[in-house]
Amino acid sequence: MPLAPELLESIVCPRSKQKLLYFEADQRLVCPSSRLSYRIERGIPVLLVDEATELPQAEVDRLVAQAKALGLPNA
Q1: What is the dotted CATH code of the domain comprising 5-70?
Q2: In this structure, are residues 22 and 12 in contact, taking their beta carbons and an 8 Å threshold?
């Protein structure tokens, strides 16, 4: 289930307060600034820093490049 565009415009990373990249196929939101990945469960983003996955910088760089190539919002 894709997230509504209105929701994506209003949510931010709880740690950095920056916009998130939405990877629908992976059902996750990624914050390049804080290097955190937030899962989406049954269409609901789990925006808890304690439950987020910290990503290595190389993975963040790869995901940002992928988001730009796909033309994703906030890329």
Answers
A1: 2.20.25.10
A2: no
> What pLDDT shows up at residue 17?
97
Amino acid residing at 73: P
Do 22 and 40 meet the contact criterion of CB atoms below 8 Å apart? no
pTM strictly above 0.90: yes
Share of the chain above pLDDT 70, in %: 100
The amino acid at 12: V
Where are the chain's structural domains?
5-70
Q: Which helix (H) or strand (E) holds 57?
A: helix 57-70
Positive or negative, the CA dihedral 12, 51, 46, 73 is: positive
